[in-house]
Amino acid sequence: MASDPSTGTALQVLRRLDSGPRGLTDAEAGARLAAVGENTPPRPHTPSWPLRCLRGLREPFTAVLLTLGLVSAFVASWGTAGVILSLVAVSCVLRASGERRADRSLAALRDLIAGTATVLRRADDTAVPRAREVPVADLVPGDVVRLGPGDLVPADVRVLRARGLSVHQAAFTGESAPVPKTAADRAGPDAEAHLCFQGSAVAAGSATAVVVATGPGTRFAAAQRTPDRREPSAFDRSVHGIAWVLVRFMLLTPPLVLMAGAALRGWGLETLPFAVAVAVGLTPEMLPVIVTTCLARGAALLARTHRVVVRRLPALHDLGAIDVLCVDKTGTLTQDRPVVARSLGPDGRDDPEVLHWAAVAAWWTLQLAELPAPDALDEALLEAAGPAGEEYDGLAALPVEAGRRHATAVVADGLGRHRLITKGAAEDVLDRCALPADERERLLALAAREAAAGRRVLAVATATRAARTRPRTPADEHGLTCLGLVTFRDELAPGAAESLRTLAGLGVTVHVLTGDHPGTAARVCRDLGLEPAEVRLAADGGGPAPAGSTAVVARCTPGDKARVVAGLRAAGHTVGFLGDGVNDVPALLAADVGVAPRGAVAVARESADFVLGEKDLTAIGHAVVAGRYSSANIASYLRVTLSSNLGNVLAMLAAGLLLPFLPMLPAQVLVQNLCFDAAQLAFAHDRPGARALRRPTVLRPPAFLRFITGFGVLNAVADLATFGVLALALHGPDALDDEAVFHSAWFTENLLTQALVMLLLRSGRRLTEGGRLGPVGWAAALLTAIGLAVPAGPLGAALGLTPLSTGYHLLLTAVLGVYALALATVKAWLDRDRR
Predict the structure, then answer these.
(1) Is 328 among the catalytic positions?
(2) Containing H/E element for 411?
(3) What's the Cα-to-Cα distance from 769 to each of 285, 679, 756, 766, rounded to whole Å?
(4) CB 809 within 8 A of CB 787
(5) Which of the two ends of the chain, N or C, has the fewest CB atoms closer than 10 A to its terminal CB?
(6) Which is it for the CA torsion 778, 784, 790, 792, positive or negative?
């Protein structure tokens, strides 16, 4: 067989496929099925459980933790090694579990291809072909199939015969209107008018077609071979940028501690466990667990309450960070059907008579032309005017066919008279009217203005003829009287306007990327309360629209959509894309976040990060809020832990230069870190305040690092102030010789400062909400209790700590009070500056 069996005339295609109008025999079909395989699209590869776990190790902090755990084991610090490696294992297992659950949920949605198809088969060469239902998987090249309204095209086919056939192929082209198909070969833009592709749906008409490609050979399957490599997302870029700065600092810390100890105190490798403990102290050990827990809770909530499947957990953070959402028009902002907008007379004023006669024509065309179902415009006419044709006697109908963009119905109009009612494209109908040239141009200009305003236009004309028995033909369509125009708009999707207002309130700008006419898309936006700042054709190019303003890009090809998305990302935006067709796959992969509805083609669902139960912007709004809850809590955790840890490390390095002993024993550092890490699990259950949800939460490395550096230095100053109090206030300069007192006081002070940081640097609500402590408040209270109780208890004795006197506690309270005041003042100043 030729490499492209769909080219050429119908007879050439049949010969090339070794088939005929009567179809294949059962034996031929069986042999071909064995040779070419089943007509099923390729299934996506699903990673194994161990591979999913190993992928978790690619995260920077997880990799650093694994390295530090192995180093701790190497220096025989088994407690530290056990804790760190356990955190790594828990993080990888949680992430793998969440992704596996998402894949299981998605597997239930793979239902695009119809179960059976109507095919002509013969028992042998001499038998009469019979139409039978066979599984779609059993179709082979050369099979002759029949298509009717509502059928899904089961394979790539070449049309042999057609009657009023049109198909929805928005999944491939992005056009919302059905595309006419014909058995005749065409040239130019209609070169594929004789081809229907697997995954498209018959909108109207019927056809007989021959299968030219099945399974992996279809255009639908070819789209699934689109590379799935996507650029790093906003979440990946921000976390990686922060991570590698900290990684460099952590790599420098152990050598600095070792060199300082050797130069100043003559210590050698005995300080290595302490140096590793300091590096561990800088690491946000709980980050993988906190991130995975926050995202998994958000994903579970979305699946349970809003039927949204999160396929890639980090994408939930990315969705919370988007500031631009690119959507198609059809099915998202509008329903996939038109409604009547206006009925205009020739003078441009409203005239209900035009709608009446257009509905009469639609009614009798449907009845007499034996069409299986009305087309979308006829259905809109009948819905607006009702079955207006029932009061007339229908006599004949000339429907729309290939190359003919108008239809005519003939009804009895009194005794011995027939009325012809013609409706269709304005140019075609006006060409058949008895009009002066200037009047024709005026009416064409009126139709053009309505079309430019984003409405579809039908012209309506009538003529009265003498009754006759001879059948009416297109030759009778002349000398008509123009009644006027009927215009149509797209039916708005329920809740779309409210959803757009919700997204705008969240700081998300919507851009419309569509294959439709620019005027149509712009009109829909205005009907929904959006005033586009820019309306352009995709072929015209141009950069992103001004920040915070809606843009409409029309006549988009798949490549155009991907280029627009890439341009927005290059301009610094975090971009989400909602698409459901094969033509949307490149843009889904190019976006920071790809979103597809449940009814999308399989390749779009597999390429997306989110799958919606319905194609509804409301669900995206809920998902954005869930993402911002998660990302705000993750940002809170990072701000708190990194600023606190950085302050502790700076204080430890300073103390190592000043003290004649280690500022804290490795076991004490480990227990302190464990307490702080356990308390910070509360961030996974915190509820951020309304201000954190009003705009995207983006971790921008430069600003974020300035934040943690400033508060880290402030924390280190508090620690150094504690050293000064211990050295001078009670026992003079020699007080620092008391290791146990120093270790105990700093242990307590550290945990109390960390509790303050948890409360004051979070993105959550006030300390109390409704008279009750929130999760973070309870965790901070528990951390304070531990800091006060451990030095006086048996665990403190085992760690080398000693009870502190009341005087020490009072002095620590004074230091902490000043620190809390400074912390709150700087935080309030930063919050004001960010507004």
Answers:
(1) yes
(2) strand 406-412
(3) 29, 19, 17, 6
(4) no
(5) C
(6) negative
Tokens for 791, please give them. Answer: 């030095």
**Which residue type, as a one-letter code, is found at position 430?**
L
H helix intervals, 453-495: none
DSSP 764: B
Q: Report helix, strand or coil for 510.
A: strand
Pairing relationship of beta strands 130-135 and 116-122 according to DSSP bridges: antiparallel
Cα–Cα dist 162/194, whole Å? 9
Structural domain tally of the chain? 4
Query: Which residues, including other chains, have CB under 8 Å from residue 785's CB and lie 6 or more apart?
Result: none
CA–CA separation, 87 vs 670, rounded Å? 14
Burial letters 384-410, b for 16+ CB under 10 A, else e: bbeebbeebebbbbbbbbbeeebbbbb
Which residue from 610, 612, 588 is spatially nearest to 598, judged by alpha carbons?
Answer: 612
| Whether pLDDT at 832 is above 70 | no
Together in a domain, 198 and 238: no
Query: What are the tens digits of pLDDT across the range 785-820?
Result: 998 888 888 888 888 888 888 877 888 888 888 888
CA distance 159 to 147: 10
CATH number, domain containing residue 738: 1.20.1110.10
Is residue 690 located within the same domain as residue 542?
no
CA–CA distances in Å: residue 506 to residues 451, 552, 626, 692, 814 = 34, 20, 12, 10, 42
Closest CA to 180 of 375, 390, 443: 375
Cut 0.70: pTM above it: no
Q: How far apart are CA 243 and CA 594, in angstroms?
A: 25
Domain that holds residue 254: 234-308+626-834
Q: Identity (one letter) of the amino acid at 280? A: V
Give the active site residue among 143, 323, 328, 686.
Answer: 328
Tell me how far apart the alpha carbons of residues 404 and 420 are, in angstroms, rounded to a whole number.
17
